Amino acid sequence: MKKRILLKALGDRESFNALDNAFEQFNRAAKILELTEDQIAMIMEPRRIIEVQLPIRMDDGHVKLFKGFRAQHSMIRGPAKGGVRFHQDVSVDEVKALAFWMTYKCAVVNIPMGGAKGGIIVDPNELSDSELERLARRYFSELIDVFGPDTDVPAPDVNTNPQIMAWFMDTYSMHKRQYLPAVVTGKPKALGGSQGRGTATAMGMVHCVRNAAEHFDLDMKNLTVAVQGYGNAGSWAAKLLHDDGCTIRAISDISGAYISKDGIDPQLAIDFVRRNKKLAGFEKEKGIKKLTDPMALLELPVDVLIPAALENQISNSNSPRVQAKIIAECANGPVTPKADDILTENGVFVIPDILCNAGGVTVSYLEWVQNRMGYYWSKERIADNLKEIMDNAFATVLQTSLEKKVTMRTAAFIVAIDRVAEAAELRGLYS
Ligand code: GLU
Fold first, then answer.
1. Less packed terminus of the chain by CB within 10 Å, N or C?
2. Which ligand 1 atom is nearest residue 154's CA?
3. Spacing, Cα 15 to ligand 1 middle (Å)
4. pTM above 0.85, yes or no
């Protein structure tokens, strides 16, 4: 590992706007690909962004207004695809950036879909189940002409889950007077959900970490891991890596970060969250300590660091202190471009989000295919398909990174942009 560089050397302040960061990542790859301005004009900016107002009758009878968005970044290679998040910090620029990442995520694993993302500005923990259902249904019905199996197919994201996908699917099917499960993925299995979708994001990451470990000649069984975020992706990430023999040193959620020198049993933490909604109080379990600063989790001396929460967690200020050998990005956009430069200087191997967390949308695609056939595959078949797709994508990105002497992120964008640009070129302009 190279000598750690000083933060001061890089100087100026950086942007925490996810969209600025996404475009910076794009530009780095576009420069190497020598894209023309015309090509960039056709594939960089989101194609459309829709904002909707969502008046909801609350349980106490009063009406509360929420705001929702759907950004469709690209439909060049297939229907727009991407999750819907419910979070108090959702913004137009955030959904635009997340939609942008979806386009290139689908392209890097070579599934025939474009990119989109939606969001509602809300803290879902403040809503009752019935308020949440009314909000979900109102969002979907407001955007009923935007969504569709051939146009735009949502899925779960931060704070959304299979039950919410079931309400989306039901709202759409009731409006269209047909059973139309292919309008949304990540549904419960009883409504056409796929085997393996719940674990897919984390499983895709595990395939990437296994490939990275092989590349560096590391034994999975000796790896120590810290996981930031304990939602669907983070909790399964900890559990699956633990099942593969890794030691989970630390985990965190909104309530704080928890560490154990003997290793944390992720299942114990999953059961704890199921009972208590959060990890708050987890330090009372045997051998567990709470970190005073939850952000210190990112700086622990572990082999693998897994950001599985939100954007901009590793920036120019804390990246010089990151000690992990490998960062596996389960979240979208957790590392800023300036942090990327510092991590590269320090010899940290970053498996970028558009590759590392693409397992989720990959199994979403397999779900969509099964819905359209009306025929369902076994757990084993889904697992094999996912592994094959992730292994191929990792190998292609690694080879590009070695050949062009660029980071894995820039290599992933090179592979993905090339595919999107070729499709755009072939389609030409309708004007
Ligand atoms: N929200 C997930 C992501 O960011 C999954 C999207 C999907 O399955 O469409 O990749």
1. C
2. 9
3. 24
4. yes
At residue 397, the pLDDT reads 98
The CB of 155 under 6 Å from ligand 1? The reply is yes
The pLDDT tens digits of the residues spanning 137-153 come to 999 999 999 999 999 99
For 308-350, write each residue's pLDDT tens digit: 999 999 999 999 999 999 999 999 999 999 999 999 999 999 9
**123: Cβ contacts below 8 Å, ≥ 6 apart:** 87, 88
Q: Where residue 170 sits, what CATH number does that domain have?
A: 3.40.50.10860
Give the C-alpha separation, 170 to 13, whole Å: 47
Domain boundary among 335, 356, 377: 356
Residues 111 and 251 in one domain: no
Q: Count CA within 13 A, CB hemisphere, residue 52.
A: 23
Q: Is 117 a catalytic residue?
A: yes
Q: Do 124 and 242 fall within a single domain?
A: no
What is the number of the ligand 1 atom nearest to the C-alpha of 365? 8
The residue whose CB lies within 8 Å of the most ligand 1 atoms, and thus the one to mutate among 157, 203, 382, is: 157
Inside any domain, residue 81? yes
Atom of ligand 1 nearest to the CA of 98: 4
If you measure from the C-alpha of residue 364 to the centroid of ligand 1, how many angstroms do you get, rounded to a whole number? 8
Domain-terminating residue out of 336, 356, 376: 356
Q: Which of 119, 120, 114 lies closest to 153 in space, CA to CA?
A: 114
- Residue 132, domain member (yes or no): yes
169: containing domain: 46-179
Catalytic member of 117, 239, 325, 338: 117
